[in-house]
Amino acid sequence: MLRAQRAQARHHPKARPVNKPRFAAVVALSAGLSGLAFAAPVNHKPKAIPLSACRKSDFPAKRAAKPVNFASGVWIQTLTVGHGPQPKLPDTVVVNYSGTLRGGNVFDASDGAVFPVGGLIPGFTEGLMQMQSGGHYRLCIPADRAYGARSPAPDVIPNNALLIFDVTLVEIRAP
Question: What is the mean pLDDT of the chain?
Answer without folding.
Answer: 78
